[in-house]
Prior knowledge:
By secondary structure, the chain is of the alpha/beta class.
Amino acid sequence: xxxxxxxxxxxxxxxxxxxxxxxxxxxxxxxxxxxxxxxxxxxxxxxxxxxxxxxxxxxxxxxxxxxxxxxxxxxxxxxxxxxxxxxxxxxxxxxxxxxxxxxxxxxxxxxxxxxxxxxxxxxxxxxxxxxxxxxxxxxxxxxxxxxxxxxxxxxxxxxxxxxxxxxxxxxxxxxxxxxxxxxxxxxxxxxxxxxxxxxxxxxxxxxxxxxxxxxxxxxxxxxxxxxxxxxxxxxxxxxxxxxxxxxxxxxx
Length: 252
């Protein structure tokens, strides 16, 4: 029986991951801690209600050390001395910057949603906040330097920069904790039809979540420090230059 912690679980991929795990038998999944910054979504509340004591929503702001520490203490108390088996670090933000990196503000600027964020704030949220939780999993091919030319026209330089930093951070953890038996890796869940991915994305969020869980469940030391792609049958040889979901390793 395994225990999981999933960040960013109130919607999108994080919520779909919680749902996929909740469907598995208790012999496979004992407990899932689902972290969220704000109020529980109705969907997460329903999943937790259907699996009382097994799906546990927890408030946590990944950019706030005090909030992280409180969440850690809550998880420790529920685990009752047992270690956490899997951490799927999914939370992140992706600002759109029309016109490229020259228009990415160093100071605060208003986003289309009305929220104010700066380039430094996105780096703090997507990268530094993840360091404090000690693991990172969910990345994107937009963070691949080798494939940067392919995604040149995507107007989200801060997102690309922070994901590339996240990738290197994961490698450092993989190297630093390899002797202790930990496995750290990043994977791309695909371009999914979420609030972030939009309706024109490649895959339903459920498809991406199912593929992610499959990789995580089968993870071993061979995956340590690697950048993995999900596998979706029929997408291995997609003619688009952007995304092929072939289950292979992604170039850094």
